[in-house]
Here is the input.
Amino acid sequence: MDMLGATRSSGRLAGLPDSHFIDGGWAAAAAGAMMETCDPGSASPHARFAAGDAEDVARAVDSAARAFPVWSRALPRERGKVLSRAAELVRQDAERLAIAEVLDSGKTLAEARGDVAGAARTFDYYAGAADKNEGRSFPLGENYTSFSVNEPVGVSAHIIPWNYPLSPAARSIAPALAAGCTVVAKPAEQTPMTALILAELLHRAGLPAGACNVVTGTGAAVGAPLAADRRVRHITFTGSTATGIGVMAAAARNVASVTLELGGKSPNIVLADCDIGLAVENVAGAIFENAGQICSAGSRLVIERALHTEFIERLRKRVRALRLGHGLADGIDFGAISSAEHLKKIAGYVEGAKARGVEIVTGGNATVDPATGRGWFFEPTILDGMAWDDPVVQEEIFGPVLVVQPVDDVDEAIAAANCTDLALVAGVFTRDISKALRAAREVDAGQVYVNEYFAGGIETPFGGNRRSGIGREKGLIALASYSKTKSVTIRI
Here is the structure.
């Protein structure tokens, strides 16, 4: 029986790591404690792993600090070769990584396979960037030579979210290593497996011992001491705005820099002149991919009234065709919610909306896998005719719940798009390039997608404005987070 068949049969993936990865090898928790990770699709544990604490964090940071002089002084092209080999190893181990991601997170196997392919591409991209982190020269006149060099900041911390365990790990670890930094990563306690596997693959690719360490455990026991360690010079965090504020405060005490990718309540603006079929597919994908558990999900539909009735009916039919079930099952479009706790949170928002008399177009209920009667699932849901100040418009639900804000024209659409404190992403669907460019200019967001939601790739910078974050990941600009500029001026 192949790997996928064996996992489907047993509910477990053989050979998953159960220890931290520190100093180039597996390391048990200092206190000997263990935790369970659950399969959201079956609502049952599927593996055990090390429950770390401050002592484990200190060991990992010690290791990263020792490795820093070795890795930072490696020739940039040699760092690039290691990252290129890592990309190939990720591809070779793609099926194991994808299955582990499904069991930890509840997403579909197709989504997980896409995440793995994206992670490999990320390491390819930063392999090519490692020897292009260039300085500049400054024209001070013929009696001076003045130039700058970019130096790695030192030990970097990476606090990884549960909704995309592998993708954010790759998009921050790869540029950090390309710049010459060393890494201590803390995956979410719900989804630790792919970060651990990735660390081992990086070591096999030729990364020196200690250059990438992974410590597993809770945010309080591992994340907090990692963020507070004075030897950590940059923290990359993806997660909620409230937790990000705490991370930023911890970094400030040590005058460390941060990249924060935080919450979103992103609008999808659909104007009456759009390609309706294209817009329906993109609006559905923007909110129902990964069961809506995406910071940049298009969780608000801002739509012109002239198109509203037809569009909502077509969207309702599209959503009702989604096939819900365990992520490893065949023919599944829509996976599980990450935990019972998060399912309760999503249900609470929708029940509150029902109590306020909000129209439920479709969905609106917690449910289970129809094939097994198990798991943590929530029906894909559309709430129509929302007041701009309603909690489900203003607050991030982080689930498969689309809220609809009808508007009269492009001016009101832009105002509606900007009506929250969050400003991560926006989508615009129109055939009028002038309207598209105007919306791209006037909607406050870190990135704007026109006629394709989630357009772009590792080459395009990503990050939020206002309470959606600070700094940018992806693209060459990400190297700046892990670099410090030194200027040298010589009198001739």
Summary: The CA atoms of residues 190 and 465 lie 27 Å apart. The mean pLDDT is 97.
